[in-house]
Amino acid sequence: MRRTLVRAVSAVVLTLATLSTPTAHASGGAPVEVTVNARAALATVPETGLGANHAIWDANLGTNDTADLLKNAGMKLLRYPGGSYSDIYHWADHTAPGGYVAPGTDFDTFMSGVRRTGAQAMVTANYGTGTAAEAAAWVREANIVKKYGVTYWEIGNENYGNGHYGTAWEADEHADKSPAEYARHVVAYADAMKAVDPTIKIGAVLTTPANWPDAIVAEGDNGSWNEVVLATAGSKIDFVVLHWYPGALDRAGHVPDLIQLTREQIARHAGPGSDRIGIAMTEFNTGSSSNGSNTQPGALAAADSYASLLAAGVFTVDWWNVHNGIGAVTEVEGHTDYGDFGLLSSAACTSDGSVCEPALNTPFAPYHALGMMSRFARPGDRFVRAATDRPEVTAHAVRRPSGDLAVLLINTSSTTSYPVTIDYAGFTPAAGVPTVLTHTNGATSITTATTGTATSQTLPPLSLTTVVLRPAAPQTGLPGTPGKPSATAVTDTTATITWPAFKPGVKYELHRQNGAVTEQLGETTGTTLTVRNLRPGTRYTVNVIARDAGGAQSEPSPPLTFTTGTPATSTCSVRLTIQTDWASGYVAAIDLTNHGAPVSGWTLTFDWPRPWQRLGSGWSGVWTQTESQVKVVNEAGNGTLATGGTTTIGYVGEYTGPNVLPRVFTLNGDTCTLR
């Protein structure tokens, strides 16, 4: 969606919603149980993980004060020239017809700030009003003439917002505004830009799963935006670009599915070798000014989402924006929230001058959240699974190359101070008091102390807490870490897992992640293992661990995720066809075929994979939903199914998060083949 680009003199509507005075902190009662599993590895923290957006309408883009603040927060990637302005910006003369360009924001000034920050740059080439030749000339100026070494280049910004789907905020002068036209130009841009510098990486714009206009197929198109773009330009790109403004502060749980569905789209449509294509979240913000976009609730959501996205393998998450400007002013958890999506204050005032932000470059709470992230998850660290038994407290963990472990604990309760107990698998903490970093509601900095124990901490209300632990024994002489496994011959109940590492005398164990608990699926002295008794239609994430004759255990391999299918043959089969999708719901048809003995009366069942999915309505059967299970019973006129007979039923499905389609259907108790 479009974000309003706010200047200091912008007019805003002032709304004041005063919350009740916070009560004294209550005790959380029984401790929250936290589980950290160092055997269950996720993604490695990349060099470019923590990022933010700069914009050419921000006069403070290139100042030393801004660069130094970003450096102190650990920013490693800065994006330019700023959201929708990218599609009207001409770099050579530093103009953006129809938009405001602040003094001192040209490309050289931006790069000076990038270098002072110690970050890398990501540049968005102008697709909407530019050309491939213009973009190639920018690459030449940046990398050949100026030797800036800019690796990451996007082609346009949110180009699906050009009016093709009915809503327009993105500039696009092409007569054809379809995804096919965008994809053809991505190919042309990539060819022209890589002819200048073949080392650069090119990114194409995708829609984010479950965010408009994801999954919508416009008239005349051969598929959704993502399907068409990936099918045409997949062989030319190095990464895809997502933007996410969830609009609520409790959406980090959507991240694993959001990224997995994107990976599945890439694998399905981008052609051979598509596993090389990375995922960048080049704009992220909580998108919720009413709940605290620049106060502590927004900070907690920021840390939770950044950690979740990086753990899922996104190679950069870039906050919108460094400076943005004042919006609707509210009181949130005892502090003024200026409705400002920036990390730093713009010192702006409301149109009537009744409310002004604090002094220029005063950090807002999300700035401190990203500062905490840079101290918690450093480049080269490996995320490992962590979980809690209370929804008010979330947990993330990383294992450092040194063997140290860091645990990030987020208490979202505004009134309750929670004691926590931490249990570890695959890691034994050293004795002694650990180092603890904390940021609390209204705090202007992150505090560091030695407090509590490795297994017991207390979390203040609305707080971020990082516990840094050393291992009890030196991490030397361990078996080498196995390489990333791959899956072949995946059926409904079996899969063959293979990994590249091999050393005589070492035993390899295959572990399945089940939340923060691992289940050993088998072991072998070879490099291939066929696992059995898997559940049909189920997503599995596994790691390989090497263990030597003395019992020393390696670090876990990079994770592998695969999904089992349904029986190759069965007494029934189901074909699920999505007829139309509007990014929050869809109409589906189910062709149900009987391959067994004639049936007189049938019941079809399936489960929604996620709690944010539900049945809207259904037809050609009697449809009911109980908790997550959907049941369809035949109507009087279609209850008989001869051998080989087919009946078609349909439903409306509704969703408020990534739409993971049901994969397992049973007819009168038998699991059907999914066609």
Automatic annotation (TrEMBL):
SUPFAM superfamilies: (Trans)glycosidases, Carbohydrate-binding domain, Fibronectin type III. It holds the Pfam family CBM_2. Keywords: Carbohydrate metabolism, Glycosidase, Hydrolase, Polysaccharide degradation, Signal. Residues 481-567 form the Fibronectin type-III domain. Residues 565-675 form the CBM2 domain. PROSITE patterns: CBM2, FN3. Residues 1-26 form the signal peptide. PANTHER family: ALPHA-L-ARABINOFURANOSIDASE C, ALPHA-L-ARABINOFURANOSIDASE C-RELATED. This is Cellulose binding domain-containing protein.
